[in-house]
Amino acid sequence: MTKYILHRILLFIPTLLAVSMIAFGLSKMSNNDPVENLCQQEEPNSAAALARQNKECQQIAADLGLDKPAFYFAFRAKAFPDSLYQIYDLNERMARQNLIAQYGNWSLIEVYFRQLYQLNQQVLGLPDSLSNDLVSPIKSGVNQLNIHYEHERIHYFLEEIAATIQQNATLKQQLYSSFQNVVSVYSDVRNRPTKGLLYIPTIHGYGLDNQYHHWISNFLTGDFGISYYDRRPVATRIWEAVQWTLIINIASIILAYLIAIPLGVFSAKNRGNWKDQMTSTFLFMLYALPSFWVATMLIVFVTTSEYNMDFFPTGGVGNLKDTAPFWDRFWETVYHLILPVFCVTYTSLAFIARQMRGSLVEVLDQDFIKTAKAKGLSTQKTIWKHAFRNALFPIITLIASILPATLAGSLIIEVIFGIPGMGRLAYQALFQSDWPVVYTVLMLAAILTMIGMLLADIFYTIADPRVRLSKSE
Amino acid sequence: MIVALKWDYYFTNSKIDKFISRQQHISYTQLLWQAFRKNRLALWSLRLFYVFLFVGIFADFIANERPIYCQIEGTTYFPVFKEYAIKVGIAKPNPLFLQKDWKDIEYESVWFPPIPYSPNTLDLSNAYKSPSEAKHQHYLGTTELGKDVAAGLVHGTRIALLVGLLSMLIACAIGVVMGSLAGYFGDTRFQISRGRLLLNVVATPIAFFYGFITRQYILSEAGKEGGFGLELLISLGMITSIFLLFNLFTPLLKRNKWCAKLLPLPLDLIVMRLIEIFNSIPALLFLIAIIAVIQQSSIFNVLLIIGFLRWTSIARFVRSELLRIRSLDYIESARSIGLSDFRILFRHALPNGLTPVLILIAFGVASAILIEASLSFLGIGVAPDEMTWGKLLAFARTKPTAWWLAIFPGLAIFISVLIFNLIGEGCSDALDPRKRG
């Protein structure tokens, strides 16, 4: 047994690594840039301001750990340099990357961006006496050139800048030469591509100082990182959220079992007759009832005054202050959680009751029940003393499969009722591209699922000694 | 494991059933069908499914703002049919119909579909009308911009069925292949020469490099501007051909003694790990994550992802089925006369264990429909011009007075989930002789 459990736990490792890489890979495919979101978006009006802003953004990238290479190694075409990761701005990095993907000549592209930088410095150093109408199109043009890679766009912005420069003598004098440099380097980039380099694979190792390594090693030591969204520790955010999810789920599991087991027994006891058929049909319908529909109907009908049935609050968890008396807060919370708990409960209730009925019916068919009856035991006693215990085993194993559901299982209900639990946290984090939170939720969910599956198997052996644990099952 | 025990039971039953069917001179399928028909609820569910299928296929003829047939100034038009031609690209829209709303055209004779609205037709004068107060044939009321609920439901049927059936088709294809490889070959039976293994190990990064890394730019541009599917197919084609090319060299390498030595490939272990990985990711969260990354909303993305995520239960089932079948005598004798493993697997072993997959498919369709509905309810994964049940239901949250928005779309989701569950239940009863009575 111990050996089996150890074996299973060892097998967790590759699975967890795979899940972590999938989550990490997803975050790298996202084209939402956390650094850009946190950086100040003011237009710098002098070279010094630009430098300061760059430094701040660099600092943010460093704080978030995004100034490191993504993975232990990079497998890419020879045309790409090893140092692209140092550009913290996602759009600028993508512009370079996509230009390389088109022309394959990084040496020239690098020069192009350096010239562009110089041009930008000169634009920022222009005297204030120049009218803003002239300077701002150039400024925005240069900024756009920094993040674009399609020829039509680049061509358009170059033309735009050229046209503006031609309008004013000072501009012409100050910017013309460096602008011409940009134009000529860009035409070089286009005219002297080295596309062959794009088809030669190389592997470049970055060592341990990379984003993935830092994240996964911190995760394993219990440090979940800092949220991109509000820069608070992920652990704090998750701790705040998990309380609500646990309250809802524990309440609903207890309720579901309390109601489902007698219901299942009742149904099995009366199997075949109309009572059973009624209950079974009811449970089947309940099971097929989408919980988000029920939640929507409840919100529409019993939380608004439109139908004179404004019994419950529409959402949230109440907003009494911490200083309010405990029982006030308690009842306020209960009042807010009745509907969500109901919605989470009824689905699992239907499921458990159906399982209960099924397994009890199977047990009731067996010989030892007939013996018990023949002995003269009452139906009540046969069922509760002999059959029930045997039928309960599959139900116990169900508890294990409910474990992971406590984490993200009530996502839609939480979103609908506006409960700040794990499901809603994960949902919002995904749309805010708050990847540290997403990673953590995905990993915790994976760990809980695996523990749940292991527990289910272990419970099952305890419940039924005939089942032997083996590697293959 | 509970499931495994149950399947064991089905399997022995299918043998008994085949025996019975031979006795009664009817085919096994007929026997099962007879058993299925006895379950009235399941039978009616199946009939209701046909109705849904009909509505889904002919949605354009049931709810459409265009007339099916009309006559203007002596010329006859068939605008609904024309629309198909325009979508395929073999016809251009008639300028006559571009300027005016279909309702405002003066027809000499006209035949509108029973619901004369497309799901996205705006009828601003009838915004948020309940079924009773809405005029102009809004049978089930309207949404905020006067979009017709009935038309949305009809077209939503198509999307729901498309997602449910196609995603299960994908899941089934992956699951059956994975499950049968794992179950039939186990950890030892699939033997591969060192040379071939070596070639494939070398081929993998190369195929990946030329299939995806060098084409990353093309793929991502196609993702933004359309045509992603085609580019992806090209990539996959390149990968396949690189693997084929490398495998051509196997005979050459096999001349070397070291390379010719056979090694067992632990297919079962690999597949079971894969299943564990897929099972340990919370499906809904993962789906939302992928869709949030893709950013290009289309119902086809949703159904592809659902298909790729939900194959595990089918694979587990087919695996346990084949684990049993492969030790049966007739498989042994097929091996002894020298049939190839793949031939035995696909011609002899697999067909025997496939019928109960129907149960899993039926339940799978129900859950795929439910997932799609919940995603579109959250506003994820559907393009703005696609109308789905979940999306209609979501309108109810913004306007509590509109009870018809809360009831009808939810009812459609509920009924479709219910009928697929009932069909699944019916299949499972039909395959179980004890329950046939």
Give a verbal description of the structure.
- The complex is a heterodimer of chains A (473) and B (437).
- Chain A has 18 helices and two strands.
- Chain A has two domains: 32-220, no CATH class; 234-472, Orthogonal Bundle (MetI-like fold), CATH 1.10.3720.10.
- By secondary structure, chain A is mainly alpha-helical.
- The two termini of chain A are 14 Å apart.
- In chain A, helix 7 (151-167) packs antiparallel against helix 8 (169-191), helix 10 runs antiparallel to helix 15 and helix 10 (234-269) crosses helix 17 (422-431).
- Chain A is 71% helix and 2% strand.
- Chain B folds into three domains: 1-64 and 117-190 and 265-437, MetI-like (MetI-like fold, Orthogonal Bundle), CATH 1.10.3720; 66-112, no CATH class; 192-264, no CATH class.
- Chain B has a three-stranded antiparallel beta sheet. In chain B, strands 4-5 form a two-stranded antiparallel ribbon.
- Mean pLDDT of chain B is 84; it is low at 1-7.
- Chain B has 22 helices and five strands.
- With 437 residues, chain B is mainly alpha-helical.
- At the A-B interface, helix 1, strand 1, helix 4, helix 11 and helix 12 of A face helix 8, helix 13, helix 14, helix 19 and helix 20 of B.
Q: How do the strands and helices of this protein lay out in sequence?
A:
The complex is a heterodimer of chains A (473) and B (437).
Chain A: H1 2-29, H2 34-38, H3 47-63, E1 73-77, H4 90-103, H5 106-124, H6 132-147, H7 151-167, H8 169-191, E2 201-205, H9 211-220, H10 234-269, H11 274-288, H12 291-302, H13 326-364, H14 367-374, H15 379-408, H16 411-417, H17 422-431, H18 435-463
Helix pairs in contact in A: 1-18, 4-5, 5-6, 5-8, 6-7, 7-8, 10-11, 10-13, 10-15, 10-17, 11-13, 12-13, 12-16, 13-15, 14-15, 15-18, 16-17, 17-18
Chain B: H1 2-23, H2 28-38, H3 40-57, H4 59-62, E1 69-72, E2 75-77, H5 79-88, H6 95-99, E3 109-111, H7 149-185, E4 191-193, H8 194-213, H9 216-225, H10 228-247, H11 250-254, H12 257-260, E5 262-264, H13 267-280, H14 283-294, H15 299-309, H16 312-325, H17 329-336, H18 341-349, H19 357-377, H20 389-398, H21 403-430, H22 433-436
Helix pairs in contact in B: 1-2, 1-16, 2-21, 3-7, 3-21, 7-13, 7-15, 7-16, 7-19, 8-10, 9-10, 13-16, 14-15, 19-20, 19-21, 20-21
